[in-house]
Fold each of these.
Amino acid sequence: MEEMSVFPRMSLKPEVTNYLKGVFLNNEVLAAAGHQEAECRFQKLLSCLSHPPSYTCVRASTHLAPLEEIKHKLEEELKKQEQMCGSSAEEVQVQIFPHPRIPDVLLLPVDGPRPVKQLSSELVVGAQCGSAVLRGAHVFAPGILASPKYMKSGDVVSVYSDLEGKCTRGATSFQGKKVFVGNGVAQMDRTSIFCSDKPAKGIGIQMVEPLYQSPSFDGILPSLAFLQNLPSVVVGHVLGPRPGERILDMCAAPGGKTCHIAALMGDQGEVVALDRIRNKIDKIRQNAKLLHLNSIKAYSFNSTQAVSSDPAQETEGPPFPPESFDRVLLDAPCSGLGQRPIMANTWSLKEVCSYQPLQRKLFHAAVRLLKKGGVLVYSTCTVTLAENEEQVAWALGTFPCLSLQPQEPHIGAEGMLGAGLSPEQLCLLQRFSPELSWDQTKTDAPLHCRADGDTIGFFIAKFLKN
């Protein structure tokens, strides 16, 4: 369905494009699918990564209220929001669907790309801000790079995303590579954005005609509705935590998965969250508090060093004695090449390939910290073989105690050929591959059928320690 491509394909450095092409056109894939099909899949991947998914996924706090009740409250809140933006009660239609296989997920369709007319007044935002707008956010002041010279609060402007990070902050116009993301109303004058002593805070542009229309969740039901990508919610269910267990989330910030694990256990047991970056730990604690979860203990710590060498050590926090945890989630730092929408990635090949050794160090620690009979789930939000299937092949070869397990729910595709894994092993892996459904995203298909295919790029493997 090529007309969906309102944006150019995701742009990468040529060396990275060639590397990724080699991944998607590896010998195993070519032997199975043929050159034309493999090439087509790779081109579709670059297309779909620059577009947002066709729905918003919300994880409902079903440990605090039943799903139906949360759905109803969310409908009410979003209707109010629409009416505040000037829609009449008759016009407002909020569609929210429960996911048929995941009991704590609500799906909201995204309307787009819509026919929005571009205006002569242009405002430029950073690429990250542009991506957030495409997923329903307003423009916050720090994201604004350039604006019309005499822009006043109340002016209507067309918002563009700076693809290559070349726009100078405070400019009045920009001729570089940019894409249109919608129209909005300025909430501040130009001077208060660029010329005040303190950095400007708050909403700078309220989006009134976004190219992709999806609800803004700013401040809506903060303890009941948590924005989370569908595969990230699936991870928590695949881990399968049970009340009373002790669970480790090794690279936990910002804490979405940590909180989900605690909720799935009914907040009974202990969830230990580690992250290297101290201020991210505060974010995890804030999220836990907001969601009324008391079983989470968060520490700022480098998880590669989380195994204690002193078995007699009896401390509350890390490092921990070997075999301290019933389940371990290793949602590893990765190259992030599955995130959507991203129109341009400026990383070098060296940066893209730098994660495999770190992931392996974390893996060593994870296996040591896991009890015998315990479950280890490894996940990434990237599409390379080196960080996904190759890591599984490496782990199975390095740790004879590990065996691959089936995943529930399994709504993604199976693993990708190219790492020498058997067909049986690939079936046990879960690779969310949005490019596979990119041409069949028929808008008349039921939302959940589209939702399961039209995700970010993501990978999950589940192991048992025998």
Amino acid sequence: MNKAMILNPTRPVWPGFSSSKSLCGDANCMEQLLLHCANAIESNDATLTQQTIWVINNLASSDGDSTQRLASSLLRALISRAATKSPAFSFLSVASASHETLHRFSVIELAAFVDLTPWHRFGFIAANAAILDAVKGYSSVHIVDLSLTHCMQIPTLIDSMATKLINKEQPPPLLKLTVVLSESPPPPLLGISYEELGLKLVSFAATRNVAMEFRIIYSSYSDGLSSLIEQLRLDPLVCNEALVVNCHMMLHYIPNDTLSYLSPSRSLFLKELRDLNPTMVTLIEEDADFTSSNFIARLRSLFNYMWIPYDTADTFLTCGSEQRQWYEADIGWRIDNVVAKEGAERVERLEPKSRWFERMREADFTGVGFGEAVAREVQTMLEEHAAGWGMKRDVDDSDDVERFVLTWKGHSVVFASAWVPMNRVDGCSHVEA
């Protein structure tokens, strides 16, 4: 059976649903169809699955509007899930084609790509401001950069260190940068080695008169970054050195509690991080929940969050452009991981900010707010982009600390927060294990 036959069975009758893209292309209709298909897959109903796939395929489009493109990606992921779920869906194996090959960005391409949207810049601005404030007066600053964007935040931080952390008596502090290299990293993928990246960053820092050291640690998010924690424990104690852990959209790749039987959980990682007595921890994450063990509930959460990157793409990327293909291939990879993978293979396990804040407090951290100057800088940056972007101030009732949340058309996208250990020991960068 070929793909055309799979996606074009005998026309089913769907009361209330039209096969016309113009009549049934709205988000609510598409969501219901996708959930209907998912329920058919979960109940091993091959006939109903084939019928719903046919209907969705006639409504979705990889080059249509944002809802159609989202539905197209979700449909591919559902087909992939069904094809591997049960022998009842063996007829789908020829249609479960993988997503497009992920692009490997050069440093210049990735830097330009990050600048196209506030998605990452929002967190860069908030985190850098918090870091600069926390490390004033230190002669050495050790930053552990756990970032999805491969150190794209660091050049701006170096610039700020060169101009704001300087006085007549002494130069900017020594910057030590530690990065983690893991197997099978999530997109976006970098097209050069981390060794090359380090050389570029050290060279850039030299042009700003900032002395810099660069270190790579091979560690895995799947085991709670145990190698990283162990190495940080073994690092020699350095007095008057600030230890900052910058977590930018990567901590959700550490298994959550539902996978704790396989490996250490993110709660344990945060407690081990607290034992290192860091000067500050910045936590930037997407504000969504992909952790439900119930597949239908997880799919609903996915649909109601992942429309945002598709919708924003319409404002800054030309339809059919190479950049949009790169961008949406990365989104498709994430969707496929949430829908088609289970167990340890499902690594896209976002949690809402309320759960992250709870974890941080359980690990004995307390929140630090952002000032008005940071808020103005974020607002200025947002004005450079499409009108749909905004920022709201979120005050958590547990500690009365104000955090920032990036929004798109009023919907929460990314939150920015900064944390310090309660009763932190001043002086050296960490305490002995």
